[in-house]
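note to self: dont lose this again. the chain is below, predicted strucutre after it. 201 aa total, dont forget to put it in the shared folder this time
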Amino acid sequence: MATRRKASPIYSLPAANQKTELELRRERIALEEKEKGESESQEAIAAELKARQEAVSKEEAERRFADRFDLVALIQKDPSVFPIQISLWNILIEMVQPPLKMGIFHKTDEMLKAEQWFSVIGRVILCGPSALEGKTESGILLSNFTRGITDPAALVGKYVIHQRHVGADIWFAPMPGKRLKIISATEILAVTDNPTMFMRP
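---
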């Protein structure tokens, strides 16, 4: 009686567009390494940004320390030292002095004067009685100034960024180094706690 030969198993080859398990594993490893690299890159960028922000915050602290005359504090203590009353919806701001250095280099007097003249960042010193009353031409309430500022008293002492080429420049003779400007409330674009963070380095 003839014995029947046992059929050998048939191994099918993967289709041309079908990836093997090894290829899929390699792709998965490559994708994980890419995601890990991107995550580490983002962490490095975040760490560098934080270090730069800390350096700028140090410059801001030095700027405030160097300014011996705090007009807001002086006026609140004795209004007679600053004999002016701001009318209507106008706001008096003290322009922030630009940084004295660009990196490790000290700026020239001409550079500082030019930057100060074109600066659009200042600290609110006084507000008119109607500074945040009424509506804009489009009907927006001025009391909705920012989420945390709804009345003039809350705006005093804040640093603001205003539109360029607006307002009236004035100087206070007893403090010749301070440049002041009178603008209207609607010419203010933003409020910040750290003006140095938004000034040209």
